[in-house]
Amino acid sequence: MQKIVLPHDHGQDIENRLDVVPREEEFQTVAEIFKQLCDGRRIQIFWLLCHCEECVINIAAMVGMSSPAVSHHLRQLKNSGLIVSRREGKEVYYRAAETEQTQLLHAMIEKMAAISCLGDFSRHEETRR
């Protein structure tokens, strides 16, 4: 990385540490995930799927939306890697992906919204806290 000389010296010696600042492209994944969470309903669906594995029809009933609207949100969440699906016959079931990012996001949503974990509904309760 090219040495950066800042116009103002505030005594922090930050110029010597700028070589470890990640490039903008490295933050793009984070930006893409946050773009998916710009809708309260989508966050609600993601939060529910952190606690259970469900089909579109049941998710729609839980959040009071139509199945097509829920399917749209699920597609967005799946494309961002926040949820995964599995097929059993004609039915498709969705749940939160088991990644560190989803666990952090789940915890962040609960802290920011001051809501509690559903606990007993989760197959993965201990790993999601």
Task: Report what the structure shows.
The chain is mainly alpha-helical and 129 residues long. The chain has one domain (27-128): Winged helix-like DNA-binding domain superfamily/Winged helix DNA-binding domain (Arc Repressor Mutant, subunit A), CATH 1.10.10.10. Helices cover 45% and strands 11% of the residues. It has six helices and three strands, in the order ααβααββαα. The protein has helices spanning 28-36, 40-49, 56-63, 67-79, 100-113, 125-128, and strands at residues 54-55, 83-88, 91-96. Strand 2 (83-88) and strand 3 (91-96) form a beta hairpin. The termini are far apart. The relative contact order is 0.13.
The H/E string reads HHEHHEEHH
Distance between the termini: 39 Å
Number of domains: 1
In the CATH scheme, the class would be Mainly Alpha
**Unreliable runs:** 120-129
Provide mean pLDDT, rounded.
Answer: 84
Q: Label the structural class.
A: mainly alpha
Helix count equals 6
* Beta-strand segment tally: 3
CATH topology (fold) name:
Arc Repressor Mutant, subunit A
- Strand fraction: 5-15%
Adjacency order of strands in the biggest sheet: 1-3-2
Helix content: 40-55%
CATH superfamily membership: Winged helix-like DNA-binding domain superfamily/Winged helix DNA-binding domain
Primary descriptors:
disordered C terminus; 3-stranded antiparallel β-sheet; 129 residues; mainly alpha; Arc Repressor Mutant, subunit A
